[in-house]
Amino acid sequence: MGQVDCATGTAVIVVDANGQNSIVLSPGANGQVDSKDIDSAPDAKILLLQFEIPMETVLHAAKRYKSKSTKVILNPAPAKEISDELLSHVDILIPNESELSLLSNKSVTDIKSAEVAAKELLKHGIETIIVTLGENGALIVDSKQATHVNTYQVDVADTTAAGDSFIGGFSSALLQNKSLEESVRYGCACGALATTKFGAQPSIPTKEEVEKFISLNKI
Description:
36% of the residues lie in helices and 16% in strands. The protein is α/β, with parallel strands linked by helices. The protein has a single domain, classed as Ribokinase (UDP-N-acetylmuramoyl-L-alanine:D-glutamate ligase, 3-Layer(aba) Sandwich). The strands form two sheets. It has a six-stranded mixed β-sheet, sandwiched between helices. Strands 1-2 form a two-stranded antiparallel ribbon. α7 crosses α8 (207-216).
């Protein structure tokens, strides 16, 4: 990409009285990220992808890093339909309920329907699907079983960045060689903490805040 003559990507976020948010995105420089940027990036143990860069760049990154035995994690947000080719290069897919419903073309209204929809997507070769369920925690689904993980109950001020905090926390726990379920629990703590503050970046908790929160709260 190099130097481009456009603004940094921005988002306008509206939060209702229940802490739920609506977001309008302007991609800016994010929309200029291309395959050359991916090819010049270093090797990594984990590649975490979302849809705030062009889809062709997301696919190129997934294919390049999958070939290097990197763990490819995809958060399919903002929600949109995606190709079978991209799904075939994903190790861990982390959708919320609405994203899972769109990708599987199945109604997702509870834990059981989330399991059914996730198992449909496993057919694309995905190793594990982790469905984030808000105040109901998360559901881990693979070819052998489905495991529901409860989350921490907090007073919600703003859900903005809760999903991002969950995924970041989950990924960092994986890098520390925690088990999949332990990593999901850590991600739940990160996501729960994020909902207790207003804003996006300001609400993302530090490692110290998360560890203190976990020590004082049980699920």
